[in-house]
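Hi F.,

I've been meaning to write this up properly since the lab meeting, where we talked about keeping a consistent format for the predictions we share between groups. The idea is simple: the sequence comes first, exactly as it goes in, then the structure tokens exactly as they come out, then a line or two of notes. No screenshots and no reformatting. I'm using this chain as the first example so we have something concrete to point to.
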Amino acid sequence: MRKTEVWILASLILTSCAGLGILSEAQTDFDTGLGLFNRGKYQEAVEYFESAVSLEPDFAEAYVYLGRSYLNVREYGKALPALRTAYNLSPDTVKNEVFNLLIDALFGAATTELKKGNISGSIDRLRETIGLAPDSKRAKDELSDALITLGRDFLSKGNIDDAIGAYGEALTLSPDNTRAYLGLAKAFLEDGDIAKALETIQKAFKIDPKSKEVLKMLGDILGK
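Output, unedited:
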């Protein structure tokens, strides 16, 4: 176990034992789960951590290690409820460490949803991430990319207004994203608004004047 993990666990146990009156049965289940966790048996540990939080709903460290167990087997969606609860219950001394675990789970869940083709689910997870970490460049960039994918999906179905909205939101998050400009220009072009399409692709050209996609789109618009 790394030093940081030991510190998290020790701080949580001290706080819980002092103020929450953890039931001995819940503590026993937690200790069994922790032993399995430390041996890398994460899936087996889940059962004991689940039992611990069922017996003692304010058992912060059990929620932490339940979330960590799910993270280690890449079941991000299952890690999220445990880590949200752990974050709310954790003392200030370890809140930042639990926060980082929660952010990892949100990124993992967003990626998983996107791979399954659930764009909206991915966007929801990334919006939650930005809500918790509004200055996260990674969250903004990944949400921008997900919105571009959503815009492309809208456009393929003929939902031009929705596509324009998705691309516009992507650009709000990532103003230098040429792919968002390309998508937005295409949406305007399909909507018959050549002036806005030209204005949009010119912005992309200023960012990346050597882009073949931008140059092609610019030529297509000027040829109209």
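Notes:
Residues 204 and 213 are 10 Å apart (CA to CA).
The mean pLDDT is 89.

If this format works for you, I'll send the rest the same way.

G.
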